[in-house]
Structures are given as C-alpha cells and as structure tokens.
Amino acid sequence: MNANATTNSGIGGSVRRREDSRFLQGRGKYTDDINIAGQTYAVFVRSPHAHARINGIDTAAAAAAEGVAAVFTAEHTKDIGGVPTGWQVHSKDGEPMAEPKHPVLAEGAARHVGDPVAMVIAATRRQARDAAELVTVDYDPQPAAVDMKAALADGAAKVHGDLPGNLCYDWELGDKAAVDEAFAGAAHVTKLDLVNNRLIPNAVEPRCAIGDYDSVSGEHTLYTTSQNPHVIRLLMGAFVLSIPEHKLRVVAPDVGGGFGSKIFHYAEEALVTWAAAQIKKPVKWTAERSESFMSDAHGRDHVTHAELALDANGKFLALRCSTLANMGAYLSTFAPCIPTYLHGTLLAGQYATPAIYCEVKAVFTNTVPVDAYRGAGRPEATFILERIVDQAAAETGVDPAELRRRNMIQPEQFPYQTPVALQYDTGNYEATLDQALKAADYAGFEARRKQSAAAGKLRGVGLSCYIEACGIAPSNVVGSLGARAGLYEAATVRVNPTGSVVVFTGSHAHGQGHETTFAQVVSDMLGIDYDAVEIVHGDTAKVPFGMGTYGSRSIAVGGAAIAKAVDKIIAKGKKIAAHLLEAGEGDIVFENGAFKVAGTDREKSFGDIALTAYVPHQYPLESLEPGLEETAFYDPANFTYPAGTYVCEVEVDPDTGQVTVASFHASDDFGNLINPMIVEGQVHGGLAQGIGQALLENCVYDAEGQLLSGSYMDYCMPRADDLPSFQVDTTVTACTHNPLGVKGCGEAGAIGAPPALINAVVNALNGGGHSIAHLDMPATPQKVWAAMQSN
Amino acid sequence: MYDFNYHRPASAADAAAARKAAADGVYLAGGMTLLPTLKQRLARSSDVVDLAATGLTGISRDGGAITIGAMSTHDSVATSSEVQSAIPALGILAGGIGDPQVRNRGTIGGSIANADPAADYPAAVLGLNATVHTDRRAIGADDFFTGMFETALGDGELITKVTFPVPAAAAYAKFANPASRYAIVGVMVAKTDGGIRVAVTGAAGNAFRATAMEQVLAGDFSAAVLDGISVDADYNSDIHASAEYRRHLVGVMAKRAVREIA
Hints:
The complex is a heterodimer. By secondary structure, chain A is an alpha+beta fold. Chain A folds into three domains: 31-36 and 202-293, Aldehyde Oxidoreductase, domain 4; 302-473 and 638-790, Aldehyde oxidase/xanthine dehydrogenase, molybdopterin binding domain (Aldehyde Oxidoreductase, domain 4, 2-Layer Sandwich), CATH 3.30.365; 488-634, Aldehyde oxidase/xanthine dehydrogenase, molybdopterin binding domain (Aldehyde Oxidoreductase, domain 4). In chain A, helix 10 runs parallel beside helix 19 (748-767) and helix 18 (676-696) crosses helix 19. In chain B, the strands form four sheets. Chain B has a five-stranded antiparallel sheet with strand order 4-5-10-6-7. In chain B, strands 11-12-13-14 form a four-stranded antiparallel sheet, sandwiched between helices. Chain B is globular. Chain B starts with a strand and ends with a helix. The interface between A and B is medium-sized, with 23 and 16 residues.
C-alpha cells in the first residue's frame, strides 16, 4: 500500500493510518492494559451443560479460599435487572416477540454451555481461578434444544420453561398475495434450500471489563471492550444496575476488533461494575480464548427455503423466502432485528423484482446467543439471493452475468422503492458489473478453465452482485420498526485558541482507522494541517454522546455529524470574521482555510478567528458568545446503499475436494472515498471474513449442545495462505443524502464474498461433469469431496 | 496452570533422575502440547523436568543413517543440510509441521513421545524404519507406536535420539486439517533396505503401516497399482473428516508420494 500513500492529507488522500504506529509497535492501550490500584480479579464458573437445572450451588469452600474477596451467584444478583434487548419485533399476528429474562448469572437453570453460573473474585487471577474450581454446582442435566427445526416441533425440550415453546417470533414482510399470484403465472420457478452457517466472531482481543467504584463521589466507572460505550452506559445503567448516567462512566479504550461481537451489552461487564461497588474494590475480568468461544455472541445461523419466479425472458417476477433464525438461549442486544429488518429488507438486492415475501421464525436453542456479526443479516440475504439467481441461471441456461444484468435496477429508476420497505437513493449497478467483469476478464474464463483442466483441476467462476443497507439509520424509521434507541451520531468539534482542533466523536474505533479518516475530513473542511486535528472517542466522560460503530455507519453517520459540527464552526467563524473585517456576514466566504470578504483581498486566517474567539477583545460580545466549539447530532435521512460486483475463480482438486481461491476481484460503489487506502484495507478484511465463512469457518454443536468447534484446533480462521491476492477497485455514485456523499465500506466484503465463492465452487463441479445445485458453507474439502461422490 | 516444581537438568541422566524422584513428574521438551494442556488446567504434574539444557540436540550423518537429537526443533531438521541431502522427505515433513513458532519450539523427541494421532513425525519414524533411542534401550519403529497418545516408552524413559536409515527414496504427502494444520492424513512412502514401506498418520488412533500398499508396490512401484487398494484401519472420524473420507485420502496421499518418487 505504500505505493498508494499520497501527500494529500485531505478527503481522497491515502494517508497512512496514524493509529498504526502504536498498534504495530504493541503500544496500544487496551482494557487489559489498564490496572487500578487495589484491583481484584473475577473468574466465572460456567455451565458445562447445554441445559441443566441448578439445584444448588455450594460456594463455602471457594469463599474460604486464600485471597477470595467474594463469591456471587444468582442468589445475590436476582434483584438486579436482566440483560436487556434493544429491539422488539412483532409477529405476523401482531403479538410482541417472546422476551425471556436474561439473568446476569444463571437463575435456577443454565441454558447453554458457557452460561455464567457464579462469579469468584480474589486478590489475584490465579487465586480466583483456584477458588472457582472449589465452587460445587448441583446440576440436573435436561434435554437440550439444539437443532432449530427440532426445537420448533411439538414436545421439544424448552429452553425457557415459562414460555409456550421455543419460538421467539414469527415475522413477515412483503405482499404475500402478490407474490403468490406472480408464482402462479411464472414460466420458471427455481427452488433452493440453504444454510447460512453459524460463525464465532474471534476478535483478536478477547473481551475484558474492569469495574471501579468511588465511594466518595458515588461514581461507577466501567472500562470495557466495547464498540459503543454510550450504548453500554444507557443499557447497563438504565436497565440492569439502575445507575443514573451522571454517576456512570464507561470507557472503551483501544479495542482489538469487534466485528459486531462488542456491540452488545454482556452480563460480565454489568457484574464487574456491580461487584466493584459491593466489595469496594476494582474488579477486573479478562476472557480467556475458550470463554470467547462460548460467551461472545455468535453470528449468522439461518436455515432458509427460497423460491424465485421468472418469466420466459428471465425477468424476475417474485421471490419468497422462509427462514429459521437461531437466537441462541437468550436475546442478545440487537438479535431480534438481525434476521428481520437487516435481512428481509435486503432481499431485493440489485434487482427490480416486483414482488417479494419473506417470513422468519426466530428460535430459542440451548446455544450461545446469536447477534450481529460483520454484515449482520445482509450477508444472509445476499447469500440467498445470489445463490438462487445463479441456480436460476443454471436451470434456464442463461449466463449468470446476463441474467443479473437483465434484472438490475437502472440508474434512471432511482430513487427506487423496493417491495421490502427500503428506498435506494442512488446507484449504477450495471456499471459496477461491467467494471468487475472486465477487470476479472470474465470473457476469458473458458480458456482458464481449460488450463486448469489440463493440470487436473476443476475451475469455476462465480459472481455476486450484493447490496447492503448501511449508515444505520433514521431514528424515526427504526423506531417504528421496534428499535428501542435512536441511531443518530454525535460529534463535538473543539477549536483551541491557537487553531488546533480536537474532535470528540461517538463513533468508536476498533481497527477501522477513524483517527486518520476523521482527521482528513476536518482538515479538508477547515483547510488546516492534518496533524493539527486530534480525534477522541471511547469515553462517555469526554464525548457528548454516541451510538457507536457497527453497520458500516461510522463515516456515513459519525463522519456526517463531524461535518455538521464543522459547518457550525465555519458559520460562527464567519460571524467573527465579519466583525473583524467590518463586512456583512453574508459577504464572508470561507475558502482554503481563510475567511474572506467576497471579491476583495481582505481576509482573516482560521487561526486568527480561533484566537479572536478565545481572546475576544475585538468581538461582537453583545450578539455572539466567545469560544469556538460546536456539537452536532446527525440523524440520517435514509440508509446508505453500497453495492458492488464480486467475481471469484476457484480451483477444485477432484481427488481431495480441496478448494483454492484462484482469483478474487471486487468492484464496489461506496460513494465518495475519504481514504482509499483504508477503504481497500476494509474490503480486504471483509473479503477474508467472507471467504472464511464460505470455505473454512463453522461453529458446530453436537446433538447434546456441546460446542465441538471450541478452539482454533477445530474452528478454522482464514489465514494469509488461504487467500488470493485481491484485486479491488471502485465506482462512485455519491450518496444523495449525507453531507460527505459517503456510503460506508466495512461490511461489504463479508456480505458479497460468500455467494461468489459458492457459486464458483458449484460452477467448477458442474463444469467438471457433476450435477450439483447447491453446497452449504463452508465448502470444506470433505463436503466438496462427498458432493462429488454422490453427484 | 497449577503450581509445579520446575527442574532444568544439564544432562539426560540428571533429567531421568529428577523425573524419577518426582511424585508425578513430566518431561518438558518443546512444550507444544504440554504447555497448553497445563495452562488450561487439563493436566497437573508435581514436577516439570525441562529438557532444554540436556544437550540432546544435533543432527549428524553416520554412513547410512541420519541421527537427530531428541531436542532438535522441527526447524533445525527442516533446514539441516544433512537431512536435506540424505532424506529430503524428512526435511519437508518437518518444515510442514504447524507454523514457524511451533517449528522453532517443537522437537522431534517431544512429538513422537506424545504420539498425537495427527502428528507428522510418526509417519516418518514408521515409514523410514527409524530407531528410537532412549536412556535405556533402542526401540524399533514398528514397536514404538502402540495406541492413541501411547508408545512403548516406559515410565520415565527418555528419548535421547532418533536414527533414520537413509532410504533409496522417500516422499511424504500430507492433507492438512484446515484449522489445526495437523495431518488429517499423512503418508510417508519409502524405498528402504528392508523393502517398500508405507506409513500413515492422522487417519487412525496411531500411525500404522499400510501393508496392502507395500505389497503391491513391491511388485510394481507405480501410483496406478494403488488403484482399488483400500487400506483397512480403525479410522478416526471427526467434524473435519469422516472415516470414509480419511480412507479415501490415504489412497490419494499414497499415490502422490509414490508419484513424487517414481
């Protein structure tokens, strides 16, 4: 990437990431690096059973062990609130979803392997661990609900005894009658059953939380590995611990990756906050990697039946999908909205399909809770759509690129209202398709297939034309859909007297490069040196408010909030300049870092204005406050809609079933780019995760609910040698409704890549004489080999 | 990790003595399996006897054999010019174990003493008809691996070196577990003084010889002769590979190794 580094430090410049100097030198300051005088250490006793009644817990020996400060069980915590859910979904019949209590420590029953049952706190980590082994839990193992279909059957073991069954909700979206009618008149119907495999997030930094309590001020502080410290303060303070905001500070310092898993409010962070006040000592908990596997919210896990109706010319008439979505044992923070409003609404994709109907049954099982994971609902929707479109192409004998092209929404159709609630503001899907096909030499594929065949390999090509809804989201819209929070973003821009700038943003950074990207925006808008801009985030005591980082919203919502605050700075600067230059405010223009009287050579530099604001000797004090600091809350008018085409080629070893990614080309439309190098890095990371899902990663539970893929010996993360050298480029249609014209890029790769991979593998097998409609992810060697044996 | 007494003896004899004196002692070689097991509290020993200072390293060629000290790291074997010139397949096998960190810590003695069913070295020991030397005796390859994580080693018996007769030709073909990169199936094929040897690791509870393959290859050393030869074994089955798939891969990997030699 160094070749791409430019001297342009404003918008559009590939500035090297300033945060990397500390990250790459091991000098980042993560939660576990924080140690407070007198700190104690918590260890959790976790259920080894997927489902068990807890008849009793004997903590006497643990409490008496050396160094132990306290041992807590549900007996102590039953009066504090359960872990709340931030979204309420209603079923087809209008009834609200089932919302069982999620106690911070298991009350009477453990409902998944890893469910915390007791908390042991001691002076040292090893004392806590030794004492945790002395806690005796009288478990009465119960039958577990693991498979979703089985969990919905009559007589299935119930995850929550106080609910009628394991159904959380039965939701629908779209015009069922119109869809049925379209299917009745279709020339061709393609049907497909798909599984979207369950994933374990595996951020490089395990979760960690430190609770601290100041008994003099009554202030609680939580240091935690969070993507959104204000959301944690809100949820934990209001719903779990009843601590008012002014007595609760949440700090999320450097965070080593989240991918969604650190959005959510977890019991452990509430417990350390609570326990610190109980024992009047700071309490620290750091997850071990094994705990991460069994306590970080998992991702995906859908089972879907989909049908696509086409007319005789290959035009899509209608799509219908029926999905089972795993919620796990409890509802994690945003779990209910992932398979619904972030999934069903994306089923139009890039296509002008006139009628779409989607129904989703969310199911409780005795597994770790499932929630948003990079892409969150949108990868699942894209996988359905881009697989069934490919299968329809195969069945109707139309080239997959051509079939997609015939159905794409055309540029003149924007804004385009889909039949599944969203209104796309802009895009040019065919242009992106063309760019990708050309760059990937799609036309030359057959020659490469022959070359591979000569080497004994089956080569395949696969396309994926994805869309995503990012920049989450208009608060009034999500509110009407069940969100229990607003989804704006906040920023404060503080201009110091000497002209340097500190930006306080609610967008948390955990690897995305915000400290660089946001500084470029501010530097560009104010015409000041990039190095004069500092970005501060991750502390509720510093930042005014924030809804945090997820859903590729940081630049589209957080960046827009910063831009709006900068606009206010400029507007105030014009007032000050008008006074100094003895001109009308309307005659002042701000260009290249200077306030000028339009049409004259009279101007004041940005630095002059900043100093004047803080040394207001010549200042309109009667009409204007001194100082130069502005806050903006930006609530987007719409989602943003990044889209793109991915072209992947694979080689399959017919002897072993091993799939090798031969090439991968990504053409993305992210709107305007602030830092193209960072964008490319985000695409690379997303593609790695998408390829990981498609070929390698799989969370496996056995029939009893034991987690079989509970370590890196069995859970396969993508590694550099699993990946090709990516070819990445972009097209641009600027977002029409945010000040920067940006769309967001964080999740695209993880959304678009999986179907491209599976399409390519299926294409390779069928090109090699097999007859295979579909392969579920991950396409492991064993699975591909087995498919070749049977077809 | 539970507390234990730590010893760092300066010789094999001192190591054996420390191990013998311990209530429940264990040798620490590279620690690639032992240390994670201890850290996760899955094992507990009163005494850990670290072999790092015992001097059991060094790779040498003596006429028709390569001798490798038990504490030689995988990397030292992989990069040894003696190994590369005499038994390149052994160097390739060692260079394909784990990742650079593992290869810089893990040792040949530790690997074969642990006898992980998916480890690579057992295929080399068995396929190349090595002799495992201990502080008490010499154990032939065919007698060494007795079961899953089980060997012929007696209590406290310490591997000091492994001697590999130089074969006329040998090749190792491995199909790695995508997650752990251990062998789902690894096959070492060698033309030795005692005839063709085909050793399989990863597929069953312990490394074993595919005698059905050895017999047909003795008559006609070609990959084609392996067509239709199905090797019977008590195959492992897990989430990565069924027994049936492993059985298939034994054939594929054996053919690849044969092709590489032929």
